[in-house]
Amino acid sequence: MKLFILIFTALTPTIYCLSDQEEWQQFKTQHGKTYRSLLEEKRRFDIFKSNLRMIDEHNQRFNNGEETFKMRINQFGDFSEEEFRQMLGLQIDQIPNGGDNLALLDDSEDIPKEVDWRAKGAVTPVEDQWDCGACWAFSAVGAIEGQVFLKNGTLEPLSVQNLLDCARGEYMNKGCYEGLMVNAFNYTRDHGVLTDKEYPFISFHREEHECKKQGGVKISGYKEILAGDEQALAKAVALIGPVSVGMDSSKLKFYDIGVITKESGCKNERRYLNHAVVVVGYTEDYWVLKNSWGKYWGENGYLRIKRNDGNTCGVATAATYPTLD
């Protein structure tokens, strides 16, 4: 241990202060981080230090009222931007453009000012996709779980791994590398999706596996929300249930608390959508979204995005929900 400390200290420039090293040790312990070599750890420490500085600068602006959300270091603290992008598995070129599946919701029906499907028991606990770009599958099963609950009153986590392994080929998903919610819905319509207990998640580090079995809950299809229409999205969330959405996640990496607005710089055009989440509620001011980066990320695994603010982060650009008979 003494030899390790001496070598690591020699590799570490003197500009690193003790507080950085203390935070680094705490970070490694909390997230179970280990590295193949001292040089690799030195590189990761450099990334970590750079992220700390960025977060500190952002939070100073937050404390001065210049930002609307706060950041904190999390499991991505030693990730390069390229490594973080590899986790973002939304298949942009497959995002649909409406057509026959466009949802036709009753414009005359009033909706509540606030909705929270968590409080109604329609949302399963937050999960963690680890290094796997499985956001599309987590988003899809999140919406299906809500519909199953609303139909028969039972709530049980469905299998992301089932979709990663089996919804390939003609369904155009690529496991931990990329996929799309509507492709997952098409697979579930044809073959069903098993529960997480029957087919647990194991692709923590982007491992690929053969399709082991099929079956389970089937849906009848899916509906799309008119692109960019936040009012239609609110109506779907209120009247139908949790909705799968794509979004620009460029501001989410170290999100802690608060409401993300368009002033953050996130984009709403289709070409910028790179991550998938589930809208589980709203207020007059913001959307409530369930993420798949673990319960220690964000607000216990959730985030809030400004509502009716020019489609912030593209939350209404590619919104879909499953249908059950």
Automatic annotation (TrEMBL):
Signal peptide boundaries: 1-17
Annotated GO biological process: proteolysis
This protein's record includes keyword Disulfide bond: yes
Keyword Hydrolase applies: yes
A molecular function GO annotation: cysteine-type peptidase activity
Ranges for domain Cathepsin propeptide inhibitor: 24-84
Family under the similarity heading: Belongs to the peptidase C1 family.
Protein's name according to its UniProt entry: Uncharacterized protein
Upper taxonomic lineage: Eukaryota, Metazoa, Ecdysozoa, Arthropoda, Hexapoda
